[in-house]
Design a protein that fits this description.
298 residues; alpha/beta; Nucleotidyltransferase, domain 5; 11 helices; 14% strand
Length: 298
């Protein structure tokens, strides 16, 4: 399966590279740089492993492998990141991790997935924060999904970053669309209801303290509407709609539960830029796997 995934991604890379301007004064194109990196990520190996011909099937090597130093230098370039972002359109997602189209999806879901590292890791930008089972050190993947294989928008930030603050940035990418955004109780704050309303969406999240009153402060009308949808005299529609929030849990599970998926971060993936690049490659791999499975099922 790894071979089929890589071949499909490499074909998309070459097509996208033909449409993009070639960087000046380079001997190795961006498509090769990204292809070698994806080969490493697909096999959960460091980049140095993917630069050795012995780790490739002969029939796949129709290009000269770059050196480790070339990979390290070119993986930091803007053109390489732009090429990876250019794959989002053919894979049914947005244009990049910070800018995307919401499409015509009526229901969206938003959540965060912890990416822990060891407590004594030397990663200087890893932070302590709330994980799945208590406090852990590392990073978090925040994602806003529609019905496509790729997130509408996503970010990787240190573990202690505020989920509400990241959600504000992700919600901006819904401008020009309408619908609902389903979230857990962490996102139940008036400011996020206002931000979602500004981009034509109704945020739907359960209250942090459902048995408590609303106090004397003013609440955003969309928050009052969400409370009525989930706790009012006729909550059937709201609860049935909110049940769809489980789809993002399944998406995160699908992203991790296959060979080449987003497993726990390996030791060589540290510092925020490297983690973002690694996660981006895993998201692309998962999206291609989604497409291949859909074609086989058709």
């Amino acid at each position: 399966m790894e071979r089929e995934l890589w071949i499909a991604l490499y074909r998309m890379l070459r097509a996208a590279a033909r449409r993009a301007p070639r960087p000046k004064r380079v001997r190795v194109g961006d498509a090769v740089i990204v292809a070698v990196y994806v080969w490493a990520a697909l096999h959960d190996r460091p980049v140095s492993w993917a630069t050795r011909p012995c780790n490739w099937p002969r029939e796949l090597l129709d290009f000269a492998l770059p050196s480790q130093s070339t990979m390290s230098r070119r993986l930091r370039t803007t053109s390489m990141r732009d090429l990876m972002a250019a794959l989002h359109a053919p894979l049914g997602g947005g244009s990049s991790s910070s800018s995307s189209s919401a499409g015509n999806t009526l229901v969206k879901t938003i959540d965060a997935k912890p990416l822990p590292v060891g407590a004594y890791s030397v990663a200087k930008d890893a932070r302590w924060g709330r994980g799945t089972r208590g406090h852990v050190r590392g990073y978090k993947l925040h994602a806003l999904y529609g019905d496509g294989p790729l997130p509408i928008a996503w970010e990787v930030v240190p573990m202690n970053a505020s989920e509400q603050r990241v959600a504000r940035r992700l919600l901006r990418h819904l401008r020009g669309a309408v619908g609902y955004v389903l979230a857990d109780r962490v996102y139940d704050v008036n400011d996020l209801y206002a931000r979602a309303a500004d981009v034509g969406h109704q945020l739907l999240a359960p209250r942090k303290r459902p048995d408590a009153g609303l106090g004397h402060r003013a609440h955003h009308p969309n928050r009052l509407r969400a409370i009525e949808m989930l706790e009012g005299p006729c909550p059937t529609f709201g609860r049935q709609l909110y049940a769809l929030r489980a789809t993002i849990e399944r998406r995160f599970g699908r992203l991790t539960n296959f060979g080449g998926g987003l497993a726990p971060l390996p030791n060589w993936v540290r510092t925020l830029p490297r983690v973002r690049l690694w996660v981006h490659a895993k998201l692309l791999i998962d999206a291609v796997r989604w497409q291949l499975k859909a074609r086989l099922a058709a």
